[in-house]
Amino acid sequence: MMPGTLVKPLVRVPVQSGPTVRVQDLTGAERAVALYASDMPSGRRRHSSEQVREWIVQGVERLGVEEIRRRGEFFYGHRLLELHGLVTAQIQQRHEQRFPKRGRLNVADQQAADNVYGDRMSEATRLRNGTAAVDGDCPCRGTRYIPAFYDEDCGPVDMLCPVHARAEIRRHRAGYGQTFDLRDDVRHTPRHTGEQR
Ligand SMILES: [Zn+2]
């Protein structure tokens, strides 16, 4: 063998211009927030996966990763309260200030869901997926319990706050035969301060 043939050709490594954003490193809520902040049109239309990906990256570049995460947590917290009819006027007002165009937010949410389905989520992102926060005074007032109704035999009955008692709620559900994901414990460690708000 000729010694010269052992020399590997030089591989040029492309120089990256600034930090790159990968959609896989964003939760569904974060992708929705990014799309909302991007040039994506508000109409319900089909777009190519590449185009949606580009808009997500554009939104992140506009707001910054920190702000995308913050808004993503508020967006998801609002949704959890809304599902249980627990949104107060203050929380709703702040939500609408952040996302004044309701229709656009719905479109962004749908596009983000499709993108998560197609592009998936990195493992690290899956661990913090579902982190929620409330912008305003949560109906549980930080106690994680919300008065639900009055029972003649038991007295006042509380419900668990869908945002601040999420880990407990998941454990309860797991107790009724659903698959329990151990990752939920990791996801709700105290250092996730967004969960504690
Ligand atoms: Zn709460």
Q: What is this entry, summarized?
A:
The protein is mainly alpha-helical and 197 residues long. The protein is 49% helix and 7% strand. The radius of gyration is 21 Å and the shape is elongated.
- Reading the helices and strands in chain order gives HHHHHHEEHHH
Regions with little confidence, pLDDT below 50 for 5+ residues? 178-197
Taking all Cα atoms into account, the compactness measure Rg is 21 Å
**Attached small molecules:** zinc ion
Q: Tally the beta strands.
A: 2
Major sheet: 2 strands, antiparallel
* Tertiary shape: elongated
Average pLDDT confidence is: 85
Classify the secondary structure makeup into a structural class: mainly alpha
The helix tally amounts to 9
Helix % is 40-55%
Query: Strand order of the main beta sheet, please?
Result: 1-2
Return the domain count. 1
Instruction: Work out the strand percent.
Output: 5-15%
Taking the alpha carbons of the first and last residues, their distance comes to: 68 Å
What is this structure's SSE topology?
Blueprint: H1 28-36, H2 49-63, H3 65-83, H4 89-98, H5 102-119, H6 123-128, E1 145-151, E2 155-160, H7 166-175, H8 183-187, H9 193-196
Antiparallel strand pairs: 1-2
The structure holds zinc ion.
The site of zinc ion has 5 residues, from loops.
